[in-house]
């Protein structure tokens, strides 16, 4: 990870210059007053760059991160989006595990519902989020919960598929042994199938948590929101503040990495036998 970060840092400056040279040339040609004479020199000083210079990024981080507790600051809004994402992941996990149990228990249920589950993931979230928000609003469900439900809608599918695959991954010899012991179906699931499914479940959760984060941000953009990364993205996009958009994206990336790291930590705690 450190090597990749160093490579990205080394490539950022030349990529930033290449991306901003064209706009700098057009700005100079328009007669705008800048503290530079050439397009290459102006590439790092544009007020609204395609890719901000490191100094502009640093200023943007300070401007958008303070005061920390302000509803207009990024740390507060990151906390809101993180809460929506975690609640959505929890709902997706419960729904996905329930569906996985049904898929494994009944081949007929699997044949009847799996195509519809796949089809549900092809519906654009941008289209379904406002409709779902309006529908839930008619029943008094507003604010935090609708975004979490939209996040769960995106995230439940990998959990359902991964968990069903995990429940079927138990060793056939072990299943025969459980039958020899006259174990009940509940005992077989508790003692064999569930432990065998945990690696698959946590792999699915790593995919689901990133999907839930994307769903939360899209829901904040697509519905009426007063806080969250999506709200800040929408506001700064309308204001054409490219530096702020880059800072918000960086915060979102850090939040995604942090959430995946939390799932990794939970996996190591729940499945200590799988450590290598």
UniProtKB/TrEMBL annotation:
The scientific name of the source species is: Deinococcus daejeonensis
Membrane topology is: Multi-pass membrane protein
What is the annotated localization of this protein?
A: Cell membrane
Q: Which Pfam families match?
A: BPD_transp_1 (PF00528)
Q: Is Transcription one of the keywords?
A: no
Major localization class: membrane
Keywords from UniProt, A to Z, are:
Cell membrane, Membrane, Transmembrane, Transmembrane helix, Transport
Keyword Transit peptide on entry: no
Judging by the UniProt lineage, the source's domain of life is Bacteria
Gene3D superfamilies associated with the record? MetI-like
Residue ranges of the TM segments: 85-104, 116-138, 144-163, 201-224, 244-266
| Classification lineage | Bacteria, Thermotogati, Deinococcota, Deinococci, Deinococcales
Q: Which family does it belong to?
A: Belongs to the binding-protein-dependent transport system permease family.
Q: Which InterPro entries match?
A: MetI-like, MetI-like_sf
Q: What is this protein called?
A: ABC transporter permease
Q: Where is the ABC transmembrane type-1 domain positioned along the sequence?
A: 78-267
